[in-house]
Task: structure prediction
Amino acid sequence: FFILVSSILPEFIRLSPIHFINILLLLAIREIYSTYRIGDAATRIVNLGLLTGLASLFYFSSILFLVWAIAGLNIMRSLKLNEVFMLLSGFVIPYIFAGTWYFWYDNFAFFYEQQFLQAAGFLDWPKHPIYGLGFKLGCFALLVLLALGGYSRFMLRKTNQESRKIDLLYLFMLVSAFTPFIQAGIGLSHLLLLGIPLGIFL
Result:
């Protein structure tokens, strides 16, 4: 169903960095799920930070999934302060490597401008009209409402671990809703960020 949701609109089929981001976020979900009731989860937490950092390196608004990762770890386990630092250390690794590479070739200013200044924006929709925009948004909104409306059904007779995993996916949807507020040049393909939870819940 994830593949079906990821190709439901023509704009989704086009090459987009969000397709790659979704793969990274799927791996991040796997890492965060695996921390449940594990005493020493340092490797998994650093990997989680690394995956979210890589995602934000390729698509700026994915930086908000760092908040999701911190809150998600608190859902799956009793989060400790040192684990937050582990997560942050993994998150900055891609930026350190990328920044060092550009600095070495005297292009750090270009990296900073492309990664932060030009990539950030507030509800930066394209100026040209999109054919059938209202209909496409309405169809996708219906899918979101179906997923939200099924919360009580999904939580019925679930174990504690399963309930936490479901809550984590709904938190994923909530964080995704805030990403358009900081991303420049967004379009309908931005809705692909909801592909993972919708593909699971529908």
Residues 168 and 184 are 27 Å apart (CA to CA). The chain is about 65% helix and 0% strand. The first helix runs from residue 2 to 5. The chain has a mean pLDDT of 86.
